[in-house]
Amino acid sequence: MTSSFAFGRDGFVSIFKKLHWTSSAVGLGFGLAGCVAPAAIKPATPDPMPAFFDGAKILFQGDSITDGNRIRGRVDPNHVLGHGYQANIAARFGADLPERHLTFINRGISGNKVSDLARRWSADTLDLKPDLLSILIGVNDLNSGVTAEQYEQQYDQLLARTVEALPNVRLVLAEPFGLPVGPKKANWEKYRADLAVRRAIVAKLAQKYHAALVRYQAVFDAALARAPADYWIWDGIHPTFSGHQLMADEWVRTVRAFWPVAPMK
Do residues 257 and 46 touch, judged by C-beta distance below 8 A? Predict the structure, then answer.
């Protein structure tokens, strides 16, 4: 009886040890599974445009390329932004981010030079208090005989005035651009060289005022590998609807890269 009891006890101990190790292994398995599971969770979707925070006001300024035959003098939300890159940008993010209550405004005027912007700047820019201000200006200065030095001085003064009045504004400066089409084709090389001087000035001012710089000329030059110049710009200056989409895409890419994180409230 004694030896039988001893054997039974040893057997019980042996079985208990096996059960203990088995349960430990199962527990370890569940523990490892628990550690691995969170890694399978998908990362959060990136913000499509951090610079467009809730309630942001985005203002586009410039000449006819920005004007886009926008309607004046009456309420018409379907035509108030005109046609072109600015309307494409507003349409995209107005549809994608309705919960952010974004306001898009266009104050571009056909034929404007920097000096024209300066004369209407208080009412058409500063009084509107934009959170993000995009400016495309320069071809009319060049075509009307404004020297590069005058262009730089006037543009610099305009931007200094802007940041003094609106210290928190985010600036986007876009290059003047063109392609050898229509009246610009005959003297294209000289015109292109003059444009390059103006582009260098805009790049210099963008660095000085910590602005995003939209490099449009390179975009249109690259597009020539896909279609002729008049497919993108119909008269050497004004883009077609396809050219305006190139502009909108490059503007979005530039702004998103320049401000990858939403501003602190």
Answer: no
Q: pLDDT tens string for the chain (265 positions)? A: 444 444 444 544 444 444 444 444 444 444 444 554 555 666 677 899 999 999 999 999 999 999 999 998 777 888 999 999 999 999 999 999 999 999 999 999 999 999 999 999 999 999 999 999 999 999 999 999 999 999 999 999 999 999 999 999 999 999 999 999 999 999 999 999 999 999 999 999 999 999 999 999 999 999 999 999 999 999 999 999 999 999 999 999 999 999 999 887 6
DSSP reduced 3-state for 224: coil
Considering the domain architecture, whether residues 63 and 19 belong to the same structural domain is answered as no
Structure tokens at 199: 């582009």
**Number of domains composing the chain:** 2
- 229 and 146 in a single domain? The answer is yes
Which two three-digit tokens encode residue 89? 């940008």
